[in-house]
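Q: For a teaching session next week I want to show students how multiple molecules come together into a single three-dimensional assembly. I've collected the sequence lines for a complex. Could you give me the predicted structure tokens for the whole thing so I can convert them for display?
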Amino acid sequence: MSINPANSLISVPSGSFVVPDVTTVLSTEERPLRFSLIIPTYKEAKNIPQIVEQLSRLLDSQLAGDYELIVVDDNSPDDTWKVALELTADYPQLQVMRRIDERGLSTAVIRGWQVARGEVLGVIDADLQHPPELLLQLWGEIQRGADLAVASRHVEGGGVSDWSIIRRFLSRGAQTIGLILLPGVIGRVSDPMSGYFMVRRQCLVGRPLSPLGYKILIEVLGRGRVPWIGEVGYVFQERQAGESKVTWKQYVEYLQHLLRLRLSLGPIGRFLRFGLVGFSGVFVDMTIFYLLREQVELGLTTSAVLSAEVAILNNFLWNDLWTFGDISRHQRGWRKRFKRFLKFNVICLAGLFLNVSLVNLLFNVFGINEYVAKLIAIAAVTVLNFWLNFKLSWRVTDVRR
Ligand code: GDD
Ligand code: MN
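A: Of course. Below is the structure for the complete assembly, covering every listed component.
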């Protein structure tokens, strides 16, 4: 994609949110830019001229001809995209994307990164609450070797200007919940809610992102490969024109986003998925057992064995598609899938045997209450099943990460 002629919109990528390697975005004769800065906008017509002017002046001083600004507007009713498009005549580094079918801050930023030609990808709000001049300090962090440079309100020199007690409380509360659920992600930076940062493209290339709501930084920290982080303090300014688009919806989306990351990251995430699938299996088992006993009037043992088998099949399919989906995607074909199913089946049946033996041991030998014994057995067998299936049924052969 060569430099867009003035006054024409850049096309909106579609499909999954994966940042491609820069070579796939450039035309043959083009070389990558050093920096691409995304400005997500919704109803910012009044702010756009000023932010573009300030950013261009700043970046021309350090990266003349080697950066681009990409405004990603979600078809704002105040025609923000049109105002920005008119500016492209005066600012050759400026590009404008107008999204019609998609909406949301985080997805807007990633769509911008997908078409960006820079080796370092940044994001800044359009309403001047993020001071543009801080960009040079963030860039300095990247030059010093950081993979991610974050503008933080919670380090020295940081703060917020006129936030109400409620908003301060909500912001800190949200951070605390994040620290409890995802300490290894949220705990890596002092301001995980920051919407102002820049990251080396290579930290994100080829890694499926699944953004939701406002908090793009936690998505980068959770799914990116970011060894070294630098932070620069800043004071979150008062908004000059327009108003914040933050509503309670963003807080709900933030919690959803945390849960989605929790369920998808690392061994804990995988185990939680395995547990949820196991839980659905209990439901399937009980329902099928009831139908076979009451509707088909089959014998007790036959019903119990058949319903257990249907539950095993249910769990296998969900585990193959979801829990271990990142592995099974690289081991395609029915033959391989059937092999995994057989292994899963054997492990589950062994688990069933272990479950019954454990209940008997705990109840008859140690005199533990039968329901407590059953719960202990389920927990123990679930952990063992998870480990055995991870090591045997979905054994990592040649997964490319
Ligand atoms: N494309 C697009 N689509 N842009 C959006 C959307 C949307 O649905 N919603 C908001 N934006 C743009 C706004 O136009 C603005 O440029 C930027 O995203 C931030 O929106 P605000 O509504 O001004 O957010 P805020 O000031 O309350 O909170 C900001 O700062 C916080 C502190 O850094 C956001 O960046 C928060 O994510 C951040 O936590
Ligand atoms: Mn704002």
